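ARCHIVE CARD
Drawer: 12
Card no.: 0347
Subject: one protein chain, sequence and derived structure
Cross-reference: see card 0346
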Amino acid sequence: MITREWIDLFRVLHGAYNTLVALAFLYQGWLGLKIRKAEKSGDTKDFGVIKRHRGNGPVLVLLGILGYLAGATLIYIDKGHFSSIASITSWGCLSSSSWQPHSLSPGRSKAPFLPGEPHISC
C-alpha cells in the first residue's frame, strides 16, 4: 500500500502538471487567435505561428488525457473507487472526449498546408 505522504506528494505533482498543461492550452488558444486575426484582417500569414499551433495541438491533447488518467488513478488508489468525486470524474471524461476530435480534424483551418507537412485530402 502506498503511504499517505506519497499520495499527497503525487497530488501536488499532479496539480502542478495539470497547471502547466492548462497554461500550454492557453498559449495554444492565443496562437489560434493570432492566426484567426491575421486571416480576418487579410494580413500575410505567419507560417511559424501556424506550424507551432498545428504541431502543439495533438501533443497537448495527449498530455491532457494523460493528466486526467493520472488523476483518476490517484483517486482510485486513494479512495478505492472513482465515484468519490463525481463532478471531477464527469468533467474529466467530458473534456478528454472533446479534445480529441478537435485536434484531429485537418479541415478546420483555412490556412494552407506547410511544405513538407503531412495532410489528408478528402
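Annotation on reverse: The helical segments are 4-41, 47-79, 86-103. The two ends are 52 Å apart (CA to CA).
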